[in-house]
Amino acid sequence: MIRLRSKYAVGEVPHAEHPTPQCMREHWLCLNGKWSFCKIDAAGNVSHEGEILVPFSPETLLSGVAEDFLLERGAKLRYSRTVTVDKSLLQGRTLLHFGAVDSECEVFVNGTLVGTHRGGFTAFCFDVGEVLKKGENTIEVIVRDEATRNGFARGKQSDTRGGIWYTPQSGIWQTVWLESMPKKCIKHFDITPNAMEKTVKIAVESDAPKCEITVYDGERELLSRKFVGEVELSYDFELWSPEHPKLYDFVLTNAGGDTVRSYFGVRSFGRVLDEAGKVRLSLNGKPYFFNGVLDQGYWSDGMLTYPSDEAACDELQMLKDMGFNTVRKHIKLEPMRWYYHCDRLGLTVWQDFPNGGGSYKFSHVAALPFLGIHHKDSDYRYFAREDAAARAEFDGMVDEILQQLYNTPSVSVWVPFNEGWGQFDSAKYTAYVVKKDPTRIVDSVSGWHDQGVRNTALKSLHIYYTPLRVPRDPRPVVLSEFGGYSMQTEGHIFDPDREFGYKKFKTEAELVEALRTLYLDKLKPLIKKGLCAAIYTQASDVEEEINGLVTYDRAVQKVPTDVMRAINDDIAAEAQKVR
Question: Chain centroid to CA 31: how far?
Answer without folding.
Answer: 22
